[in-house]
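Suppose a classmate hands you a notebook page containing two proteins, each written out with its sequence and a corresponding row of structure tokens. How would you begin to make sense of it? This section walks through that situation. The first entry is reproduced here exactly as it would appear on such a page.
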Amino acid sequence: MHASELLKRYSAGETDFQGENLAGVDLSGTDLIGVDLSGCDLRGANLMLAYLNRANLSRANLQGARLSGANLSQADLLCANLQDAEFHGAILYAADLRGANLTFANLLDSNLISADLRNVNLSGATLRGACLRGVNMRYEKRAYNGANLRGADFRNADLRGANMTGADLTKADLTQANLSEASLREVNLTGATLVGAELRGTFLTEAIAIAATFREASLINAKLERANLTEANFSTCNLSEANLTAANLTKTQLMQAILRRTRFNRADLTRASLRDSDCTEASFIEAYLGRVDLRNAILKDANFAKAELSSANLGGANLEGATLPDNSTYEE
């Protein structure tokens, strides 16, 4: 179908164009609010700056389509093929993208506030500067798998309050992204980059972040209970009042980190480095600190009750007022 025919019929009040062949069609700048293009072949179509609010594009093939600046607010893109599609600056507010294929799509500076991204595939996609506040990517047993975000580019993205439970963010780039109050429970962040990211109050319970880089990130009051943080890099991070109870911190780097009132109870810190860190009033109750490096650390009023501290390197550390493994108070 040619663009002229579709627009003529739409102007006459027709909205149902299900299953039509519209490959390569030019509908840029058109007003197609509420149109039904479900199941259509729109490969390579030009929909730049088009108004597709509340449009039905479910199961449509939009591979390589251009939708930069398009308005897809509340659109239905359920299970759509959006591979390599261009969404630079597009508005996808509250859009339904469940099960959509967005591999290598470009969503630079796009608006995805409150969008439903459950079971979506965003591997290799670019979401730099995108706004994803309140998006839903959560894993649900017997319903939706966690979103595939492997290698996705989220640099400077706004993900405040996003639900990404169970998502696969392996090797994703979240440099300077804002993830405050977001839910990243049970996510896979293996090898991911979160340098300078904002993770204040973020839920990372039971997350896997092996060899992830959090350098200079803010994790104030973050929840990291039972997380696997083996060989992760938290150097110069602010983890004040964060909860790392029962976390695996084997060989984790926490040099020069701010760890005031941070909870490490029952955590495994084997060979971790907390050199030059500020652990004032931190809690290490029943923690394992085998061969941990605490040189020059500030451990003032820290609690090491029942902790394994015998092989730790405490050279130059300030232990003023600290509670030792035998419950006695440190005295110089």
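The notebook's second entry, a different protein, reads as follows.
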Amino acid sequence: MLKLLNNPTFDNERNVLNADLFVNNLKNTLKGFDFNLKVTYEVYRMTTVYHLSWNDDKTYDDVYELRKEIALSLGVNVEELELETVSDNEIKITVQNMKKYPLTLKELLSDFHKDEFLQIPLGLDEADNVICLDLDKDKNLLVTGVTGSGKTNLFNSLIMSLLINYDDVKIVILDSQGINYHQYDPVSEVVTTEELIIDRIRSLRRDFERQVKKGSKEKVVIFIDEIYELLKKDMSIKDDINYLLEVGSTTNMHLIISTDSVMDDDIYDLFKKNQISKLSLYLTSRGEYHMFLNEVVNDSLHKDGIYVSSDKKVSRLSLPLVSDDEIGRVTGYISKNREKI
């Protein structure tokens, strides 16, 4: 089904040319401070990594004191420099690329290698590695970000990845806004009014209990959009959601939940009490990032995401963009072929 997806437009030549120029700037700048410097670099989709090494008596502290000059040479603000010590005479500097191209779902899934575990590709990390949500290990996912930061697009990417890679997974989409996921109606269960969603959350708990009695291991992934709005509507479903987060994965029932608020006590309880991986899109303050991720995050997150797996591994991700046309082609293809069967 990859042929149904949009073709990539990625071309990193501009970033490679920039890196060549910046290396010359950097060498000339540090030569003025008596550095006998060797510089190598790798250019990735989101970042360029510069390796600086020297054979004289200079130290990391000497380099650190020149960070303003280094930042100017590399065309970034000093706050955007990420310096890491490799050895006594080598450091690594990571900077965000000036030119960024949207990641397509086709690119991401082309690099994804399916195995026996239930894994959903999330995006590419800063070294262009595919990072997956491993539902067998991470169990559930909570997504946050301000309105317009890309939560719906992320859900579309995850749903499409499931449809393309796993024909044995049941998808349930609880869309409290009622306008975002109607295209999936032919190939999944979509519930679009708050009252019906609240009833469905309660019935999912009963579904789980029936699966336990039957010994069923049917794989079910449940997407709950804007849980904060649902909790404001009916706080009693918090117990059902906590219950499913705690034990649902024992019968292959997994929750992927989005919210635009992490400051509310009831949302805070969800990601603090339960084993849950977390993905943050853009938030308005460092305090929100720290509360949600337990990590310090550069405020220039833009359309990237920060993913923290259940084992606390942190990855900054480039996330794929998914178009309505792609969704229509894939759901139409699946629906047509199901009719044939």
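A careful reader of the second entry would note: The mean pLDDT is 89.
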